[in-house]
Amino acid sequence: MSEATSQSEPPAKDLIGSYFLDLWLYTSKTLALKPETELKSEFEEEGEESPTALDTLNSSGGFSVVGPDKLSLLYPNANLHGHDVGVVQANRPAPLKRLLYYFEMYVKSAGAKGQISIGFTTSAFKLRRQPGWEANSYGYHGDDGLLYRGHGKGDPFGPTYTTGDTVGGGINYATQEFFFTKNGVVVGSVYKDVKGPVFPTVAVHSQNEEVTVNFGKDPFIFDLKAYEAEQRDKQQSKIDNVHIPQDASYGIIRSYLQHYGYEETLKLLDIAGKSTVPPVSVVPENSLNEKDGTYALNQRKTLRQLIKSGKIDETFSTLGNWYPQIVQDGTSTTCFLLHCQKFIELVRDGKLEEAIMYGRSEFDKFKKLSGFDDLVKDCAALLAYEQPSKSSVGYLLQESQRELVADAVNTMILSTNPNVKDANLCVHSCLERLIRQVTACFLEKRSLNGDQGEAFQLSRILNSGKKG
Amino acid sequence: MEGEIGLLEGLKWIKSLNYSQVIFEMDAKGVVDALDILEFGHIISECVDILSSEPYFQASSKKFITREEWEKRLSNIKVRKEDMNKLVMNFLVTEGYVEAAEKFRLESGTGLEFKNAWIPYWKIADIYLATITDRMAVKKAVQNGNVEDAIEKVNDLNPEILDTNPQLFFHLQQQRLIELIRHGKVEEALEFAQEELAPRGEENQGFLEELERTVALLAFEDVANCPIGELLDISQRLKTASEVNAAILISQSHEKDPKLPGLLKMLMWAQNQLGGKATYPRINNLSTAALEDPAV
């Protein structure tokens, strides 16, 4: 933080300012890399890699042959005993941070005895035995339809399978079970009593047995998406039984509108709320929370409108009139954000020369702000492109950037309320705090569960177009 | 050392008080685990002695997360403003606050969801917002007891809704009957019941029972206080209004419930689930979203 700023700004402003700078930096790093991203695959965000092929590095005895595409397996010779199984694991263990994992095996030929199997094993598994014959391994065998889970005797499980059948093996992290399918139908499931990563595994054992494996490159025979939806529904029905206060949602929406200064919407909502049947219980006009919530509401609305329409000069002069303390220090973060936005607006209007002049005269004094370099670089980069909105810094031209600046100014004004003790409360709305809490709970729960299972994803909730 | 000594003192004290069923929650997992392994020194073995002599004593371990640690985690979680705006818009639209939704569209630049896709705000045609207004008009009509009017409006909106929803149609007709009875129009009510509702009753046992129940209202002098008086209550209208609102939403490929209440329930559920394994700051008041320190 610059020496100049720390002398003239009270600590609260530093906190707020640096929060928004951090947010911009975060956006810059995540959005700037993939300008076209609207809906990133949630699995990408988790950063886990999935199995893609059969492993050819680890094998013992070489009793079976993996095809050149690494997705097929053949047992060429006759087997002699129980320790020459042609068993192969996938090249990576099954990823953990999701609800389900699944893969399939197609039996091209059951060969002499159809001693094929599909299952899951750990890295310690002896690669000469059928999955399920050793501890910490599970296997659904085609010749007898039994499920083996750790010793030589299997349990009755499902039908046998042979040439032409497709069987699948899956993990359900929510119920901690392995499940298996045959030709698109669930055969059964069994409790997953093994800790740590497990590898999808297939095995062949009698002469001329041949199988191919699908780790997701091709569509599955089994309708995994439908199964996933079913599992989510089961969990959802438990959640639906939770009781929450009657008008909790309405109150949270109100406080959101107050917090960010959406005054007109709030007025209309209040009017509508009084005339619903039964009328929504509205907060009493003079309660303390209400007063704090509506502090400077009209002014915050006005300033948000100015910023969202790109009128930065007017924003500066209006702030100078109403809240001089926010802009009197020309080197504060708020001023930095506003000056950058002015620069961006000039570029948007095609006034490149003016933008350069502006940048040269204004940016220098913010040198000492942390993150300054990266952010100014992003702004300046806009000048390099003929079509800046399609570049890696195109995010600056989107509404979300104006929104960020508007939110920052909004928070600064809220912090001028003498009743406010904790500046942090001005930064996050009630809704945001609730969303953070549920995200944190899911993450901790998952971490205590060996990092298995999915995290809370707001985007998934928003995009789940489930028909009632 | 502190863990074991603390546990030992605790055990001795509780034993002296003669409590029989006690669970000791400890945040020192190492100590708890050690209780299973008898080589860990004489303090542990004393604990084990007491524990094994008292049949109902148990020890469990729960992770303890401080306020500071929890707040640090929270601060690492980023929530997108656009996503929150979408949640708000979804609430306003589904609950039918048309004017507020329209104003929010302008004030926040948030789009609308239509047929499972998000439409940016500059593409929204007024025609879409009109469908919300129409839906609200139907809902209001039922809430005010103007069922004939409501049925007409629903058919104007989309004639398929009532065609594909026999249960809804029956409930609307039932409400009409209730309104006739409420206004003391006995003859008209009976005629209506016989001509419109009885044929439905023949098709469906459930409808027949409901019909009989409703007609039974006519048998009572003091209708308001009879055993089936609840049919005359406004809650009956509200139930039917909700049903028709949901049917319209579904016909427009929209979910019938806003997402926010579900999210709140998920929060409470997740907190309870985590509470079984860890002690951490919770949010108990949804309106203030204030963190409450874990009980020490």
From TrEMBL, chain A:
Domain called CTLH: residue spans: 296-354
Domain of life: Eukaryota
One Pfam family from the record: CTLH
CDD domains cross-referenced by the UniProt entry: SPRY_RanBP_like (cd12885)
InterPro entries: B30.2/SPRY, B30.2/SPRY_sf, ConA-like_dom_sf, CRA_dom, CTLH/CRA, CTLH_C, Gid1/RanBPM/SPLA_SPRY, LisH
Stretch forming the signal peptide: none
Record domain B30.2/SPRY: where: 32-220
PANTHER family xrefs: RAN BINDING PROTEIN 9-RELATED
UniProt protein name: Ran-binding protein
Organism: Rehmannia glutinosa (Chinese foxglove)
Automatic annotation (TrEMBL), chain B:
Domain of life: Eukaryota
SMART domains for this protein: CRA, CTLH, LisH
Protein's recorded name: CTLH domain-containing protein
Domain CTLH: 131-188
Species the sequence originates in: Rehmannia glutinosa (Chinese foxglove)
UniProt xrefs under Pfam families: CTLH, LisH
